[in-house]
Amino acid sequence: MIGWGDVYKVVAAMAPLYFALGLGYGSVRWWRLFTTPDQCDAVNRLVAFFAVPFFGFDFASRVDPFSLSYRVLAADALSKLAVALSLAAFVSFFSGAGKGGLDWCITGFSLATLNNTLVVGVPLLDAMYGKWARDLIVQVSVVQTIVYFPLLLLAFEVRRARGGDKTAAVEDGGGEDERPAMWVLVRAVGMKVARNPNVYAGVLGVAWACVTNRWHIETPSIIEGSVLIMSKTGVGLSMFSMGLFMALQEKIIVCGAGPTVLGMALRFVAGPAATAAGAFALGLRGDLLRLAIIQAALPQSITTFVFAKEYGLHAEVLSTAVIFGTLASLPVLIVYYIVLGFIR
What we know:
- The protein has 344 residues and is mainly alpha-helical.
- It has one domain: Na+/H+ antiporter like fold, CATH 1.20.1530.20.
- Helix 2 (37-60) crosses helix 14 and helix 5 (117-129) runs antiparallel to helix 6 (131-161).
- The protein has helices at residues 4-29, 37-60, 70-95, 100-113, 117-129, 131-161, 166-172, 182-195, 197-215, 221-231, 234-248, 257-281, 286-296, 302-311, 315-340.
């Protein structure tokens, strides 16, 4: 059962996020340290191409690849596939071949499936179910880093190559009506994805984890220190960048009430429902089923905002989902925990 001490641990893990957010916000609004959107974009690019990859490598290198819970990971994969197909069908039905179809598929997938497994998930699930749950949520986080974030980046690059990113289209000299041939599109997307360190950082981390666990060797301190010095900046700079973005907007809730409610519904209702169906279909029962559902209701991944800002797609929706979703997540997750406790 969760006690007040456990609640404090979760709140203590959340509070630094808003401290970094406040510093970013104040740097623009009050202290005028950053005065132009280009300066704020530069900070976000630093996060996207340096801090986040090192953060992913660091945690991936600490997992034990030989003790993975494949049924839990398969249930998570099945639920994400179901969400992706449902979003594609929904958007196709209501918007036809309109340009916004892929855009909302990408954003909807981010909102429904990609969550903050480490900062909030680890202390919360450790308090709820113990060490085994903490180990499982780290495994889910690593798979998110090495599989689902690269797939998200691939979708962003496909959108950009098709002309969905107007800024990129102008920079490349192409008009809005031009559509590259399929091979040119595939080649352009492949080159972009191959150059993105987020794609292979997690894979390298898992590869190194295989080496260290198979032959029982320790990471040399000089390498570990070099990785940690960048890894530790990942979460803080991501929230700082979000604060910069918020300060440049006229309103705190930039996207309006409708998208905010939609984001909360996808995060706290649709995502857990899809995961429950996938977990049940693969035979998960008892605490494993409860864990799978609760981890799907964790707050929005901060990294999804960083990528959305970098690619210019619904960053306002993702920032709102992170900021207010994280605040709302603790009572929502406790309700899930209590309700699921009655299911046998």
